[in-house]
Here is the input.
Amino acid sequence: MSHSLLEIKDLIVSVEDKIILNGINLTIGSGELHVLMGPNGTGKSTLVSAIMGDPRFQIESGQILLDGKDITEMKADERAKAGVFLSFQVPEEIPGVTLEDFLRTAKGSLEKRPPKILQFKKELKEQMKALDMDPSYAERYLNVGFSGGEKKKTEILQLLMLQPKLALLDETDSGLDVDAVRTVTKGIRAFKNRKNGLFIITHNARILEGLDVDVVHVLEGGKIAYTGGQELISKITQDGFGVLGKGVGLHEGL
Amino acid sequence: MKDFKEEKTRVDQADRTIYDVKDRLDPAYLMDSGITPEIVNQISKEKNEPEWMRLFRLKSLKLYNEIPLPTWGPSLDELNMDQIVTYVRPKSTMKAKWSDVPDDIKETFERLGIPKAERKSLAGVGAQYDSEVVYHNVRAEVASQGVVYTDIESALTGPYSDMIRKHFMKLVPPSDHKFAALHGAVWSGGSFVYVPAGVSVEIPLQSYFRLNAPGAGQFEHTLIIVEEGAYLHFIEGCSAPRYYVANLHAGCVELYVGKNARLRYSTIENWSKNMYNLNTKRASVEEGGTVEWISGSFGSHISYLYPMSILKGKKARMEFTGITFAGEGQNLDTGAKVLHAAPDTTSHISTKSISRDGGNSTFRSVVTVTEKAEGSKSAVSCESLMLDSISRSDTIPVMDISCNQADIGHEAKIGRISESAIFYLMSRGLSEDDARALIVGGFAEPIAKELPLEYAVEMNNLIHLEMKGSIG
Ligand SMILES: Nc1ncnc2c1ncn2[C@@H]1O[C@H](COP(=O)(O)OP(=O)(O)OP(=O)(O)O)[C@@H](O)[C@H]1O
Ligand SMILES: [Mg+2]
Here is the structure.
């Protein structure tokens, strides 16, 4: 059994006094890739946002451990420094700050010293090339005027440049064209190693092509209603969530 | 332009102390507080001015005593004029070489980066210490083009005397408002620039102003004449140390832009937080000419600042790009004015304001289009960013359009810093303070982009300093 990278215990999360997640238990081992599925509005984004430390989501009780260390009370920047990364479902636009300056600032914050300029520039150029990104985008303001697909690619570029321990990808494949999905998947494959972990939210599973999925979770009714192997994915994508029967969470209600 | 980016990211570890330099006050000569005709006569005598200037000063003083304080803007009740020493003469007299400038003065300038700017081969440096120009240098190549760059006092008695007389306070008459009148009475120091027809000055001319004596007012006058088809970029940077006595700055800038000429006038002002900055700036633009204002206003307790452009000739153009940052205890009332007085003239006003910690920032724009100005275009846009709920930001656009064939637009946006953007940046490892500073820096980027490198760095520096220690 691999060492557990992320451990979530009895997590209860609310937003604006409404309970969204009602007792999540989940463990991701290092080197593993987990997939999170579930109908719209069940709280998938809520879960990864809570793991990242989004202050809009209130953690009522429970624990989040990274590498055995309790990060439940930490602010987002501390979690980032501990090794958590979130590819946002809707990435933010930051006018006036170029992608390159932003990445260099982020890298400098994470590594506690500014990266070496030339090395950084070279790496950025290579990673952008690998992701089929126009190099001129490095000089553009972060996500401003980027298309939906370009924003998602930029998230993966950040993932590759920042090399976190745990990558949470929230619907990174939504809005991507066929080629772009392939490129992104290639990026994820390049990122994946025996030490890090991936937690991928997807509706269509296209992003997973050619990736070894270790565990699939289905979120329903505020709980992990189903957990299974890769075979769950094709079942869901072909026949919908109904095929799984009524989830545990639905019976329990909230 | 690659270096630009790299150097800019290095300003993170800004050190506030370089802006709080406070030298031992050791003026050679200090005048009585309060303003009387005797004082004005004395100033004039000290300067060996022509008689017409002495009379001009006295006439201005009379107006100053007659005109009431403005009541439409931030309160000036606490401005105690008697307390303000109007004229503090530094020990040093005019110096041609840097090595001759007294050490303590030199140290101050060095900390403010002047010699460095010099090394970077900027065209000329006229730096004002207290009220007198102490250091002045015009590069030979600029002079050989026939360009005159000198302190205004010596221009007054030299071969350009008539030209000064013809232009001095003609754009901003002393009768304009109380502080224009005050300026007319006690002005001291400043720059005179004359660019002959057809000459393009490739390197920017820069001057550095700084207030030093507690309670001292600064009344420098800038007069720039750019003749037909000529080009000039003039930069004024101001920074002042912190003091606890009321301080007044009532400078005046007059820009004359000739036919098909272009003048770019950039300023970064960083006044101490007790300063009353009541500055008047005005440009007149002849046919086909262009004036471009880049203006960054930092510091001061209260500011009234609305550079005005008078588009006199057909197809004259103006562009104004400005930013203000109002923090705790600051009330910055700024903006821009334009008078379209000829056909096919265009104006473009674009400003940004940032307020935090209860700071108050007001943007006023006045666009006047006369009936003669057919086919004129004006676009005003103003974006404000409030960093908390106790700060204020207002926009007051005024338009006076007497012409049917004019295309006038106004756009105002007031926003708060987005919490989700902060979370996004924090999720990449930036602290909350750094995330806010980055967003604010990005907001100001369109202005920084317009500035030469040293000034862009200084502005980033100032923003970073203004942002520091605010969020607890
Ligand atoms: N800031 C918020 N304020 C109020 N309600 C919120 C907020 N954020 C999320 N919610 C609610 O929480 C629930 C879960 O939302 P979440 O975004 O986590 O769903 P999701 O599973 O990611 O859905 P999708 O598949 O559509 O992305 C939804 O009912 C949503 O309306
Ligand atoms: Mg979602």
Summary: Residues 15 and 465 of chain B are 8 Å apart (CA to CA). Chain B has a mean pLDDT of 79. The interface with chain A takes residues 5-6, 8-9, 418-421, 423-432, 434-435, 438-439, 441-446 of chain B (CB under 8 Å). Chain B has three domains: 2-100, 130-417, 418-472.
